[in-house]
Amino acid sequence: MFSGIVEGMARVVSIEKEQTNIHFTLECDFASELKIDQSIAHNGVCLTVVRLGNGTYTVTAMDETLRRSNLGLLKVGDEVNVERSMMMNGRLDGHIVQGHVDETAECIAVEDADGSHIYTFRYPFDKELARRGYFTVDKGSVTVNGVSLTVCNPTDDTFQVAIIPYTFDNTNFHAINIGTRVNIEFDILGKYIARLRHFE
What we know:
The chain is mainly beta. Helix content is 14%, strand content 40%.
C-alpha cells in the first residue's frame, strides 16, 4: 500500500524485453537501501524489485501491466515517480493508493495559475466501469502517475488537478504536456461503495 506522496524520481537506465515481459533497470537516490522482493510504485504502478546493481535496481512489468499503464511508453533516460510502500507507523499524508493502475488518461490542457499549473486529463468513459466506482468526484482523490491529488471540475470523462510548484519540480509533472499519457488509479473507497450497492 502507498500514500501517493512521491518519494523521488528514478531514471530509466535500461529496458530489456523478455517474451511479453519488460525488465526496467532504474537508478535513484535510495537504490542502495532496497532489497529483493520489495514493492515500489513506479508512476503509480506497484512493481517488485527482482535484481539489484551498483546504484540501480530492476523491476519487471508483465503484459497486463503494460496494457493498463504508460510503462510500455518509457524510454531510456525517462524520469519515473517512485514511492516505497507505506510504513504502518507513518502518517497517511496523501490517500490510500494500492499501486494498481486502472487505466491511462491523456493530458488535454495545461494552464498557468499564477505560479501553479492546472492540468486537465481525459480518460475513456465506460458506464459499466463508472457503476463499479471507476470515476472521479469533485474534491475527491485520484492518483496521477503515482501522485495523490485532489480532483477539480470532473465530468464523465475528464478531471482537473492543481499542481503547486514543489510538486511540479519534484515529480515528473514538469514533463507532462498536452498529449502525454499518464497512469490513473481511481479512489479505492469509491470502488468499495459501488460494490456494496450491488448487494442492496
